[in-house]
């Protein structure tokens, strides 16, 4: 909890990155997360010198000649998935998503696996990434790197003209990444803001394939939202450094390239969990339960002259969100964040086939897991092992008790990792704001509980605690605040209402 502090350390420019790295490490240790790999994992890693051998004598299909490409952040090196599309008769589209076969090198109960189970996720802090798997694996031997043959799990989906899923399959394959692409450049091109990126133009047929993927993704997205998936946007700020000095907080924008990956991965995750269920294999599902504070969401909607029903209704909430986004797109992320906080956190739950799925309220789907990022998330690696057992008709590698424990552990550790990322992000913001004590800003209340009241500045992607003037206000209210204190070391940013 943010408690007031009299400290306001002055950090020199050259110490910015080192300061944030040290803060991140301390925060991880405090929350039971490991900033370094164990000696046992390091020793085990030394024996792994090559990627899993691509052998066509196995059941893996040879799909290396397909026009696979990765689309990820500009600086991403841990490439988990490739995508490819194909035109089918009657307006249908075949979508294929290849997911890196991490289990081929990271075996259950190995030292590297035990380290991955400790943190359960890669942790992306402002000044340093703490990968779930050693970089030798996650950015090389188990990454779907450019022009490298790799083993993968492929989710194949046939999409109808209106965006519905008509048919699907899951199988093992050998793949090859023919183009490493970035969200921002591909997104700008798809939105007709810039010419075709050089990496796309250099490969015959890739531009047409990406346009086909984009059309399919937009149809899938439209259908999901018509069925009640929520149009939620948050402001994600990335720290920008000039050398070791933090110089800015850059807001990460959504674009069409990101939506291709988002919509394909949501669909692939649904296919994966249904594939397991159809073969009587248990799964770890990602669920977001019925909102705990629906009454406050109803109040926020009423303040904007929109009536929501008394009982949670995803389709009606989506109608409200769509209206608000059209009315005030600049302020919509702040309203969206308030709704997200009121919806409650996601969690992992182990489920047996045939059990009634809790579902994911925000995505308006019943069947959902995490399976498409095994280099970065431990749940995805678990799911991959379950998938391979199903495909190869082998015994299930986990008991239900194990899955229950792992689901709870992944939920807990992911929450702790998110807190570390937020704390270091606040420390980065505090570095930028420490010379602006006493200035006033417009803000939106993003959290209100016994632990405190929180507000996000509307013009700078920064959130802090309201130390006074918080009586009578609630999530979603717009207020004016004065910056009264920052503590870089603790990641505290304190405001008072004016």
The share of residues in extended strands comes to 15-25%
* Gross morphology: globular
Low-confidence sequence ranges = 1-9
**Distance between the ends:** 23 Å
Number of beta strands: 18
The secondary-structure class comes to alpha+beta
Biggest β-sheet description? 5 strands, mixed
Strand order of the largest sheet: 1-8-7-4-3
Give the % helix. 25-40%
Radius of gyration: 23 Å
Number of helices: 13
Mean pLDDT: 90
How would you concisely characterize the structure shown here?
The protein is an alpha+beta fold and 498 residues long. The protein has 13 helices and 18 strands.
Describe the structure in your own words.
The protein is α+β, with helices and mostly antiparallel strands and 498 residues long. It contains 13 helices and 18 strands. The protein is globular and about 70 Å long. It has a five-stranded mixed beta sheet with strand order 1-8-7-4-3. A five-stranded mixed beta barrel has the order 14-15-16-18-17. The chain has a domain of 340 residues. α1 packs antiparallel against α13, α2 packs across α3 and α7 crosses α8. Helices cover 36% and strands 23% of the residues.
Name a few traits of the molecule:
single chain; 498 residues; alpha+beta; five-stranded mixed sheet; globular
Task: Draw up the topology in text.
Blueprint: H1 16-30, H2 39-46, E1 61-62, E2 70-72, E3 81-87, E4 93-100, H3 111-119, E5 123-124, E6 129-130, H4 135-141, E7 149-159, E8 165-176, E9 180-182, H5 183-190, H6 198-201, H7 206-226, E10 236-242, E11 245-252, H8 256-278, E12 283-287, H9 294-303, H10 314-327, H11 332-343, E13 347-351, H12 378-392, H13 400-433, E14 440-449, E15 452-457, E16 463-468, E17 478-487, E18 492-497
Parallel strand pairs: 1-8, 2-9, 16-18
Antiparallel strand pairs: 3-4, 4-7, 5-6, 7-8, 10-11, 12-13, 14-15, 14-17, 15-16, 17-18
């Amino acid at each position: 909890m943010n408690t007031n502090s009299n400290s306001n350390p002055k950090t020199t420019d050259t110490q910015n990155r080192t300061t944030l790295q040290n803060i991140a490490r301390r925060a991880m240790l405090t929350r039971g997360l490991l900033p370094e790999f164990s000696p046992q994992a390091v020793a085990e890693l030394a024996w792994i010198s090559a990627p899993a051998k691509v052998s066509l004598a196995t059941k893996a299909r040879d799909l290396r000649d397909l026009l696979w490409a990765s689309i990820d952040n500009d600086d991403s090196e841990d490439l988990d998935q490739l995508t490819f599309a194909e035109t089918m008769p009657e307006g249908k589209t075949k979508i294929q998503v290849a997911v890196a076969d991490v289990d081929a090198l990271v075996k259950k109960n190995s030292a590297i696996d035990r380290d991955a189970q400790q943190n359960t996720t890669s942790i992306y802090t402002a000044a340093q990434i703490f990968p779930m798997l050693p970089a030798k694996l996650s950015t090389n031997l188990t990454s779907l790197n450019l022009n490298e043959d790799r083993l993968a799990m492929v989710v194949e989906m046939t999409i109808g003209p209106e965006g519905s899923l008509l048919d699907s399959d899951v199988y093992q394959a050998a793949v090859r990444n023919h183009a490493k692409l970035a969200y921002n450049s591909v997104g700008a091109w798809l939105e007709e803001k810039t010419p075709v990126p050089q990496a796309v133009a250099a490969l015959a047929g890739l531009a047409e394939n990406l346009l086909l993927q984009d059309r399919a993704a937009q149809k899938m997205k439209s259908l999901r939202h018509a069925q009640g998936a929520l149009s939620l946007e948050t402001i994600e700020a990335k720290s920008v450094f000039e050398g070791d000095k933090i110089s800015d907080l850059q807001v990460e924008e959504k674009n069409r390239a990101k939506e291709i990956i988002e919509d394909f991965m949501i669909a692939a995750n649904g296919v994966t969990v249904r594939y397991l269920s159809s073969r009587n294999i248990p799964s770890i599902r990602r669920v977001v339960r019925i909102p705990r504070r629906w009454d406050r969401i109803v109040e926020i909607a009423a303040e904007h002259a929109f009536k929501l029903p008394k009982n949670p209704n995803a389709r009606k909430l989506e109608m409200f969100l769509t209206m608000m986004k059209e009315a005030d797109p600049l302020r919509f992320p702040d309203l969206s964040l308030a709704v997200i906080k009121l919806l409650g956190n996601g969690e992992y739950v182990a489920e047996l086939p045939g059990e009634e799925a809790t579902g994911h309220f925000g995505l308006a789907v019943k069947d959902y897991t995490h399976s498409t990022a095994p280099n970065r998330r431990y749940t995805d690696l678990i799911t991959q092992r379950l998938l391979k057992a199903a495909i190869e008709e082998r015994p299930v590698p986990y008991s239900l008790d194990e899955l229950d424990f792992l689901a709870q552990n992944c939920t807990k550790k992911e929450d702790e990792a998110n807190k570390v990322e937020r704390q270091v992000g606040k420390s980065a913001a505090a570095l930028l704001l420490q010379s602006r004590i006493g200035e006033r800003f417009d803000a939106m209340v993003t959290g209100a509980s016994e632990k405190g009241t929180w507000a996000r500045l509307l013009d700078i992607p920064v959130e802090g605690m309201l130390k006074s003037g918080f009586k009578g206000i609630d999530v979603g209210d717009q207020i004016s605040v004065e910056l009264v204190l920052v503590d870089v070391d603790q990641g505290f940013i304190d405001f008072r209402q004016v």
